[in-house]
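I am writing to request your help with a piece of structural work I have in hand. What I wish to show you is a protein chain and, alongside it, a tokenised description of its three-dimensional fold. Could you please explain, in whatever detail you think fit, how the structure tokens follow from the sequence? You will find the record immediately after this paragraph.
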Amino acid sequence: MTDYEQAIEKYGFFIATPIGTSMLPLLRERLDTVKLVAPTNIKKHDVVLYMRNDKTLVLHRIIRVHKDTFTMCGDNQCILEKHIKRSQIIAVMEGFYREEEYFPCTDKNYQKYVRKIIFKRPFKYLKHLIKKILKRK
């Protein structure tokens, strides 16, 4: 059991500071913090903390829910990470803190942000593919 899972079991939540830029613009590296809770009702578009097979902890958004696995991707990324098992998911983001203000995932502005990010994802991926093709030339 990870320290995160132990804290969630004991206190009901865990506060963590993201490192990296994969969840920009939502989560700013080392500036914002996230409130993570037990992953009881995981659904598409949730931000979850999971452990890769190499033991790396990752905080990304669920893009697709399959029968036995999930597909994940950071808001600031294009490449999908497939075949994440339910057993790899440690926690789900309930909300985040920006400076002293708390934004729950139920907040209207957060929901609006999620719809915008999801809408833009195919265009972002297309732009990524075009850049990749042009680099080859």
In short: The first helix runs from residue 3 to 11. The chain is about 30% helix and 35% strand. The longest strand covers residues 89-98. The beta strands are 14-16, 33-37, 47-51, 57-65, 69-73, 81-85, 89-98, 101-104.
